[in-house]
Structures are given as C-alpha cells and as structure tokens.
Amino acid sequence: MTCVMVPGGEIEGFSEHGNLCFLSVPYAAPVTRERRFLAPQPVEPWRGVRDATRLGPVCPQVPTYGPVGRGATSSLTQGTDFLTLNIRTPSLDGRAPVLVWVHGGGYAVGSANEPVLQSGAFAASGIVEVTVNYRLGALGFLHIDGMPDNRGLLDLLAALRWVKDNIERFGGDPDRVTFAGRSAGGFAIAAVMAMPGAKGLFSRAMPQSGASTAIAGMDDARKLTRRMCTALGTDEAGIMDAPIDALLVAQRDLCNESYEQHDYDRDGSAAMLGVPFVPVIDGVSLLEHPEAAAAAGRTMPVPMMIGCTSAEYLTHSTILPDDLDFAGAARFLHERVRPLGWTGQGIVDTYRKALSDHSPHGIWRAVAGDLVFQNPTTRFALLHGRHQPVWKYLYGPVLPDETGAAHGAEVGAVWYRRGMDPTEQPERQRVTDIAFAEKVHEVWRAFIAGDPLPHAWPRFTEKMKVVLHMAEGAIEPAPDRFAERLGLWQRP
C-alpha cells in the first residue's frame, strides 16, 4: 500500500498493472441535501488514513435517453460523496504529463467509475490519468434563482484546480494538463474552454464526439425550470427541498420527453439535441456561447485535438420505425432543425440532393449526426483554429447509409492498455483488433504528452481541412468528408 497526503488528510492507494492507483479521492465536499444547488464546497478533513483502494459512489441517476442513454447509465452505487477523482500514475516521482477525463452521458447519466475507464491505459503509457465525477442533471444544470448556474461545470473547475494544486504529489506536471472528454464530456470541455474561471488550469484540450451544441440561453433555462416545477407540483423553493428520488423521477421524465418528443417552442435550442439539462449562458460563469468565444479568440489559448466517429447517430437510429420513409424522416427532424431556421422537409430535400444514395434511415442519421456532432465539431475546430493549433480526427470507416462507427465506438481502443486481455473490457467496448487499438491509443498519448504527432498529421485549417482517419486497421491523413456538409446548412 502507498499513502499520499492531500487536502483533507492522508489517502492510501494500491498497485495494479504496474501503476499506483488512488480511487474516489475527494476534490470537494459531499453533495448533501443542503449543498445540492450550491457551488462546490471545500473538502472536509477526515481523521486517520482514507481508503482510496475502492471506487466510491457515483452521482444519483436513473436511465433515460433511449438505448444510448440506457447503455451509458451507471449501475454502480449512488450516494452524496461523489465529487471525486480516480487517479492512476506510473510513479509518484517526476513530472509526467496529465490527462483529466470527463465522462459522457447526456449530462444526466454515466460516471468516471465505469469499467472501461479503469484500465490504467494512460498511466501504463507514462501519463498521470485522472477521471472526474461531477453533478449531473438537475443537480448540475437546472437553473434556480439565487443559486449558481452551471454547477456541473463549476465542479469540473474545482477538480481542475485540485489537480493544478496537488497532482505533483502523484508524479504529475501541473503545467502539462490535457482536459479531455467524450460525448457530454466533449460538450463540457468546449464549454469550460469558454469560461473565464478556467484560465491557467489546463494546457491542452481534447473534446471527443462533442463540441459546442449543448448550450442554453437564460430564456430556455427558465423554461426548463418551469417544466421541473410542474413535474414536481411545486415552486423553485420546493425543488430545492424535494427528495432525491422525486427529483430524479422528474428529471428522467423531462429528459425522456425532450429526447423522444422534440419541441422547439417548449425547449428552445435544446430541441436540436433533445438533452434539456445543459450549461447556461448566465453572464457570470459562462459569458457567451463557446463558438462566439472561439471566433473572438476568447476560448482558452491551448492546442486542441477534436473529432468524431463516422456514424455518430447509428445507435440513435434504432428508435426509428423500420418502415420509415422520407416524409417520416422529415417529420422526425422538423422540430430539431427549427432552431436553425429550417423545416424538416427542407433539410431532408437538401440532403437527398447531396446524398442521393441514402435511404430514409440514412438521411435521418446524416442530418441528425451532422446537426449534433459533425457540424459543431467542424465549426469549433475552424473557429478555435484561427488562434491556436487544432488537429481533427475521424474514427471509423465511412460506409454506405451512415453505417460506419457508432457514437462511442473508439472508447475501447483509446482506453486499451498494452498487453491487457480484451475480455477485461466491457463487451460493448471490447476491442477486436489489438494492433489497431494500440495505434489509436498512441495517437491520444502523443497529443497528451506533447510529442510529435504520428502519421504526419497536419493542422486543421480553413485552407487544409484534413483529418487523421482511423479505420479498418489503418491510420492516415485524409480529406475531411464531413466538413463540406457545413455548406448544406446555408440558407438559400
């Protein structure tokens, strides 16, 4: 056993696969009923040595968001003491580069404690890896007058400050921190990059399958608060006093309603994604949309690696009827594209001209995938790239009818530890091509470490829209096949 002194007291970790591991280390106080809607509070000291050899509780949550959300929902023990970090390091000595990873789950489900993130892959590659738990759903993102907005993001800032102040004790370099995440984790990275409070807390950014889509204005945030009040049969004060089980049921019902019945008038811009609990432009912690900040050079001045899978909406499309026709695709898309001034029929007609070989399911996957993932990723890459180096990747084969690599398909490879038995990974994230997985992991490692990037990967710019394409065992630079689709959304 190995002990380290941190704010709050001494923690005891353990050794695994040649790494030193410290699990569920608190970076803020427990989220008790009284603290649910406050900014993260300082760590509470403990007596003796705190056991950091076991994973602790995760943020309270219930399944939502259809098949994708159910797959991301954590089945682990829930509780209040979940503002914690899982730290794995190759050594307590030295100053190794650091990875701080934010999990996905539509800002409502998931955790940093999920099995795929426990491989120790980056620690085995010489990087101090840190995975973060934070407040989700209403706890993290519901607007309540008098309470700080964006509590989930404030948690992430608190975690980054903890890392900045303490990671040297774990052999990490506080001046070489890469802030990374996938899906909602990627959305969170982009949002935090636009927050003034993030200044100086990380030196590289890596939004993965998520950029700048999930952001609400204050009017939309207040609409969600009214919906929550109605669901609970109370006012805002009642929300703060509601039992956690009732709060989670109301949260689930609102999430499912937004995800399954998109409604622009009801949800505002959240109708595009169908995820209602998102960061809010509150004028305090988040002053502007990340894309506006990037355009003006006000995002964090750090190099960025960003990208998507080749069929982001493949799994999402399993909710569609088998007999979907183009008119049906237009109906399902209509409310989602209204925030951008389109009708469902108009965008389907536009895509059918550009992608004439696509079926109705393929058109729906193309439009929805571009709306939520591909286009925001391209825009954010181009805007941030005006001021800082940006590299863009694409994971998975580009196959007919948008049937390539689904959302999250790269996670198993990114977190593959050299020499591990793939059966140690969860079945849905298990790699089948070990040599390819090792190559993919090396791309991530090189960026985090600040080493020369492999495969002569060029920067992504307006004049050179080239991605690093990772598919079918090969990795090589290639023209970005999705960047040109931005033009399809230009109003005639």
Written overview of the protein:
Residues 3-472 form the Carboxylesterase type B domain. InterPro entries: AB_hydrolase_fold, CarbesteraseB, Type-B_Carboxylest/Lipase. It comes from Devosia geojensis. It holds the Pfam family COesterase. This is Carboxylesterase. It is a single chain. 32% of the residues lie in helices and 17% in strands. It has 15 helices and 13 strands. Strand 1 (2-6) and strand 2 (9-16) form a beta hairpin. It is of the alpha/beta class and 492 residues long. It folds into three domains: 2-212 and 278-306, Rossmann fold; 218-271, no CATH class; 314-409 and 455-489, no CATH class. It has helices at residues 66-72, 121-124, 137-141, 151-166, 184-193, 218-232, 236-241, 244-260, 264-267, 290-295, 326-337, 344-354, 360-385, 411-414, 434-449, and strands at 2-6, 9-16, 19-26, 49-51, 84-89, 96-102, 128-132, 172-182, 204-208, 304-309, 390-395, 466-471, 474-479. Helix 6 (218-232) crosses helix 8 and helix 11 packs parallel to helix 13.
List keywords for this structure.
single chain; 492 residues; alpha/beta; Rossmann fold; 3 domains; globular
Beta strands, count: 13
- Percent strand: 15-25%
Q: Helix and strand string, N-terminal first?
A: EEEEHEEHEHHEHEHHHHHEHHHEHHEE
CATH class of the largest domain: Alpha Beta
Main sheet, how many strands, which sense, barrel?
13 strands, mixed
Give the count of helical stretches.
15
CATH fold-level label of the largest domain: Rossmann fold
> Could you estimate the helical fraction of the residues in percent?
25-40%
Q: Average pLDDT across residues?
A: 96
Low-pLDDT segments, ≥5 res: none
CA gyration radius, whole angstroms: 21 Å
Count of structural domains:
3
Overall shape: it is globular
CATH architecture of the largest domain: 3-Layer(aba) Sandwich
Protein name: Carboxylesterase
Pfam families: COesterase
Domain Carboxylesterase type B: 3-472
Organism: Devosia geojensis
